[in-house]
UniProtKB/TrEMBL annotation:
This is Amidohydrolase-related domain-containing protein. One of its GO terms (molecular function) is allantoinase activity. One of its GO terms (biological process) is purine nucleobase catabolic process. It comes from Phycomyces blakesleeanus (strain ATCC 8743b / DSM 1359 / FGSC 10004 / NBRC 33097 / NRRL 1555). Residues 68-418 form the Amidohydrolase-related domain.
Amino acid sequence: HKPDVNRTNPRVPKDTKPVLLRNAVVWDGQGGVQEGVDVFLKDGVIKAVGHGITAEKDTKIIDVDGRIVGPGLVDMHSHLGVYSWPEYDGTQDTNEMTEPLTPFVRSLDAFNPSDSAIKIVASGGVTSVLVLPGSGNIMGGEAFAFKLREVSTTSNEDMLIQAGEPKEDQWRWMKMACGENPKRVYGNQGLAPMTRMGEAYLLRERLEKARKLKEDQEDWCSAAQTVFSNGGRLESRFPIDLRLESLVSLLRGDVLLNIHCYETHDIEAMVRHSLEFNFTISAFHHALDAYRVPEILKRAANNITVATFADHWGYKKEAFQASPRAPKILLDAGIPVALKSDHPVLNSQHLMFEAAKSAHYGLSAQEAFKTVTSVPANAMGLGHRIGSLKAGYDADVVVWDRSPLALGATPLQVFVDGVALFD
């Protein structure tokens, strides 16, 4: 997929008028900076970025007076909508902790489009989030990516980033976890897994079942093709299993895997499993020890993103070997780094502050900005639509009152699909 300036964003409301932002300093989210330029938004898409853009009829023109304008921020680890505000037992739908392997549950089925945190988070410039199941299970379930714009239908499906796209063009996402959390949740009940050994076995056993089902499906397709070419029809049904379907899709390369993993030996174990079963890991999340083992990360079949905190640490045993200079160390080693909130662990409204802290600890301004824009967008497989302010991308745009990396930086306006969110 590539950005397409001629497309219409299928998410844009029909009555949305074009917007022209004049006299902007553009931070494009890919490391580029342009001064004194205009940004034209139409049909839910960034149509042009440049000097002296001519306004079309019915265009709303806004002079931003030299302020910094950037892409909407992307939070690739959030529990927004499944861990809703205000926090009550009845609003907590993050972990299906009834068995340690639940790849078949989906955050979409729990996402609350009326979560009062959604507009608060958007006010901080966050326009896209990947909503993950929690980390109580080895396999937590499927994740879904949402835009933070209220929709008239109050439908969580209509808030999906990929709403309106053909199913065959849509990415899927999954959450897994290793280390302290699953063995604490189940070990404390006298159940498996009680150790990391148990976690690894249960994961590998389930993946082996998925691999067998995938092979059975491929054998069925081959047999069906042979029978069909001879004018017949295969009488047996295509083998399916709802409990394994998402894992089979993972093994086929249709699911982007996100793994909650902190310590070096847990990271290494997951890389080992990925090579054994031939799947790729999109991102290790939290991964506070990852800066110590960049060479282990590079053993994987792809360049895994590390989605981490800037300086949140020390809250459990796994989190005691962190370094605020980890993003710089990882980037110097060629590892992509995204910063995220784990909302509501950190309030995603302040995601930009994570990038600001990483700049204090060694990242350049544009490297820091990329950690909350294009890097997470790329790790989500959506880098052709979100996370960058360039022609052809979704019209998710933030106008800042000062440098986004300055203490107290606040959006003056946030656009999602070309729609202004605030008066």
